[in-house]
Amino acid sequence: MPAAAFVDRLNEQMGHEFAASQQYLAIALYYDDETLPQLAAFFYAQALEERNHALMMAQYLLDAGEQASMPAITQPRNEFADVVEPVALALEQERTVSAQINELAATARDTGDYSSEQFMQWFIKEQIEEVASMNDLLKVVQRARENPLLVEEYLVRESPGDAGPDPTAPPVAGGAL
């Protein structure tokens, strides 16, 4: 059984993951409105990925016989000064989530909850990839600030974050909805 402290923090983290999903949807809508379909598609996919992270956490709790609770989430930011600002926000968000994931793993370790610590290892690996991908995208968007169509070309050419399904990923509550 997971440690009570870990269960509480994992339920809290589900809220952070759902909030990240909502923020990515807001960013996708901003780029859609700016007629930047590749940036919009990238962030729609990111939104789904964050939602699935929350549902992976929910499934872990359900599998462990614990209650998965739907926490409240914060209002996403919807307005941005330019095409760079949303990606900078996304990078900041990924760094915050990385710290939260590391704290969850530490909570599991500190309480001797080795099953939960092992569960968190996939998320640690995922966050390293997410931060790197968003950092790269931010550099590209900063360089192409005056011509965001160059970012669109980059996304078509490079397809960052499109590695396909990860067979080592934890299962998602509700299956592949």
Summary of the model, kept short:
The chain is mainly alpha-helical and about 180 residues long.
Report strand %.
under 5%
Main sheet characteristics: none
From the N-terminal CA to the C-terminal CA, the straight-line distance is 27 Å
Question: Which structural class is indicated by helix and strand composition?
Answer: mainly alpha
User: H/E element string?
Assistant: HHHHH
Provide the CATH top-level class. Mainly Alpha
Tally of DSSP helical segments: 5
Helix fraction, binned, reads 55-70%
Radius of gyration: 17 Å
Mean pLDDT: 93
The counted number of beta strands is: 0
Task: Please identify which CATH superfamily we are dealing with.
Answer: Ferritin, core subunit, four-helix bundle
Question: What CATH architecture do you see?
Answer: Up-down Bundle
The CATH topology assignment is Ferritin
Question: What is the count of structural domains?
Answer: 1
Uncertain runs: none
Described by the principal axes of the CA atoms, the overall outline is elongated
